[in-house]
Fold this protein.
Amino acid sequence: MSIKPDPQRITAADIGKRKGGTPIVALTAYHAHTAAILDRAVDFILVGDSLGMVMHGFSTTIPVTLDMMILQAQAVIRGARRALVVVDMPFGSYEEGPAQAFRSAARVMKETGCGAIKLEGGARMAETIRFLVERGVPVMGHVGLTPQAVNVLGGFRVQGRDEARADAIVADAKAVAEAGAFAMVLEGVVEPLAKRITAEVPVPVIGIGASADCDGQILVLEDMLGLSPDVPKFVRRYGSLADHIAEAVDAYAADVRERRFPDADHVYKPKAS
Ligand code: KIV
């Protein structure tokens, strides 16, 4: 028999049972050290394809590849021991159909050890979600503003302002839940729509830019820490990391230029002969 998996690790099924309960806490992470810090406080960590913007400086998530996701997810899994780790399926790795999605998701699960994957899209992805779940892949949905569709949506725009679009997003959310997703991210929608979807779908709805009516909240870590240069309006900042880094780097540069080398007190001595 194999060694039992870490009993502390939160599972997709645990998150799925939290509908209407204590709000679910989630953040993104892309590397081991931040994942290790978040692990104490969050229920799940999303290795989001937002890493394309945050780590690589792209303006959208479109260029992100499966290899990039797998590499960063491996780092996050090494850092986090308790939180569920969910990995985003990047653009182009699942949209062709269920078979392509399963191949990509199986690779992500085998190579990272994550507990679930996330994919974007509503009713049009229902068949794929069902296919994955029936074959052992826990799926988190993502509806509303779906950043991988930015070129079709015409920008990162709040969704659901008019009734027809709002109804379509409700139908998307229901289709994702009916297909077997254990939870879903609801991004960038107007407040009454977030409230309606959270009330009408039976699985936890994790909001981002979607009001306080959801079953939980997710933010991009670097946004809430004050590290990202461009932060969406709805993000509350809990830190000013960019300022701290700039101050520290300035202090270091000044020390070195004035020969106050930081390792001067710790020079290695030759062995006494
Ligand atoms: O990629 C990401 O970070 C996400 C969150 C914004 C939910 O999908």
User: Anything to note?
Assistant: Residues 12-240 form a domain with the TIM Barrel fold (CATH 3.20.20.60).
